[in-house]
Structure formats: C-alpha cells, structure tokens
Amino acid sequence: MAAAAGWAWGILFVAGLFEVGWAIGLKYADGFTKVIPSALTLASMVLSVVLLSIAVRTLPLGTAYAVWTGIGTIGTAALGLYLFDEPATAARLACIGLIVCGIVGLKLAS
C-alpha cells in the first residue's frame, strides 16, 4: 500500500506539472487562435486531468485536488514571473510561500 501511495504522489506531481503547462499554454495559444500552442495546451489539459484521476484512485480526493491545484498555482506564478515579467512583490512571494506550506502540510497529513 505504501508503494502505491508513493506512485500516486509521483503521478500527482506530474499531473500538476501538466497543469502548469496548460495554464502557461493559454497565454501562448492567444485565445486558441494559434494552432500549435492550442494543441499543446489542450493535450496538457487532458494529460493533467487523466493523471489526476489516476492519483485519486489511491490518494484522498480533497488532498489530491488541493495539491494538484497548488502545484499548478505555484508553477504558473513562478513562470509568470520569469517568462512574462510579472511583478515579484513581497506580498506575492509570501502568498506563494503560504501555498507551498499548505501543500507540504497536506502531504504530511496524508
């Protein structure tokens, strides 16, 4: 059972990375007017949700969903800072840190 949970956490992490991919892809797809970025965004959406559905076979749904969205939020916010020169204010970084704390807490509590 512990090995299955370990795999589920790994799958959930990858699902979160695909969530970051589709969120960033939305910017590049430009309202789904660009074919290749749109196709990659849609593929990332599908892969993200499919992997999430596999992870919730083992992990508690509420925990898995919160971690999945948290990974997506942190990754998207970080890439927004890097790729799109979004502001890196102290308040914004502190809030991202709180999300990280929440994800770690949920992982430790599961």
UniProtKB/TrEMBL annotation:
Gene3D superfamilies: 1.10.3730.20. This is Guanidinium exporter. It comes from Methylobacterium jeotgali. Belongs to the drug/metabolite transporter (DMT) superfamily. Small multidrug resistance (SMR) (TC 2.A.7.1) family. Gdx/SugE subfamily. Keywords: Cell membrane, Membrane, Transmembrane, Transmembrane helix, Transport. It comes from the Bacteria. The chain crosses the membrane at residues 7-29, 35-56, 63-84, 90-109. It is a multi-pass membrane protein. Coiled coil: none annotated. The keyword Signal does not apply. Signal peptide: none annotated. It is found in: Cell membrane. The keyword Membrane applies. Pfam families: Multi_Drug_Res. Its main location: membrane.
